[in-house]
Amino acid sequence: MEIDVSKAMKIKLSSELPPKPVFDTKYRRAPDRGFDLTQNETVTALKNALRYVPSELHETLAPEFLDELLTKGRIYGYRYRPQGSLKAEPVDEYKGILEGRAIQLMIDNNLDFDIALYPYELVTYGESGQVCQNWMQYQLIKKYLESMTEEQTLVVSSGHPVGLFPSRKEAPRVISTNALMVGMFDTPEGFHRAAAMGVANYAQMTAGGWMYIGPQGIVHGTYITLLNAGRMYLGLPDDENLSGKVFLTSGLGGMSGAQAKAVEIAGGIGLIAEVDKSRIETRHEQGWLSKYSDDLKQIFEWVDEYRKNGEPVSIGYHGNVVDIWEYIVKNN
Of the candidates 271, 294, 291, which has an alpha carbon nearest to the alpha carbon of residue 283? Predict the structure, then answer.
């Protein structure tokens, strides 16, 4: 028996073609993920993206989606991203029941220009952790959340909204899974192909879970780890902090950005290398990083100053951490 699934789809995207996207160049863009699909797999990828939009738009969107796939390694459906900046609005400004409105707020927060790592590609953090696979899914998920009742549950599979199912008020409003792979295909190469074809989404922990709260989520654990490292390896008494001690590390991204504030809370001097200056600037503007420079002489003058005064500080170095180690060895 053949079933026309389209007849079961009550919630759909509009037949009106959204305007072409305008990208603000001051925001980071995801790198090209690479294209290595076969011809048949490419056709599958296009079909999987086009299923979300009305058939009358396929002739226009198919070439655009193919271009995205060839140049970005993924189909993001940029046309369907809301214009301008996405922000988490007050919960009462969304449509639907309270739980549905709250989840919409969380999704938009994950895609905020000031929060997301690659906002145009729906990547919140972790280099590839996405809210969902494409902007058509985003739009449909929002529509489902707007229309759900307290006796329905939205099922989402790797960003794909499967649909609203009857449940009850005490049940979860959303059941979501990400990155589930059949064992024999569960390899880096297999997942890469599945993601390119639009059937798998890598969500990290809280990107596809729609509840990202930034580096603050792990700053306490990082602080405890640093203190205990000082006690175990430097012999610090339990009642002392890391005053005068230098913690050399690298990374000021979405999670590693917690290191700077954690070492300050622990009373130490943090020296954090990062090759992407935009990430240094973001952490500095947000107050996670005290100061930064690409001049190692200047940096170690700061280190000496804060070590002498016993004051905590976090210092970012724009460059490779290997450069710092070499500088330390050469200058004793």
Answer: 291
**Residue among 317, 215, 229 at smallest CA distance from 268:** 229
Q: Could you tell me the residue ranges of all domains in the chain? A: 5-196, 216-330
The pLDDT tens digits for 97-122 are 999 999 999 999 999 998 999 999 99
Tell me which residue of 14, 104, 96 sits closest to 52, measured CA to CA. Answer: 14
Q: CATH assignment of 216-330?
A: 3.40.50.10730
Strand-pairing partners, residue 154, are 164, 174
* 6-63 per-position pLDDT tens digit: 555 689 999 999 999 999 999 999 999 999 999 999 999 999 999 999 999 999 999 9
- CA–CA gap between residue 283 and residue 89 (Å, rounded): 23
d(CA 267, CA 241): 6
What pTM was estimated for this model as a whole?
0.87
- Cβ atoms within 10 Å of 196's Cβ, excluding its own: 23
Q: Does domain 5-196 have CATH number 3.40.50.720?
A: no
CA atoms within 13 A on the CB side of 252: 34
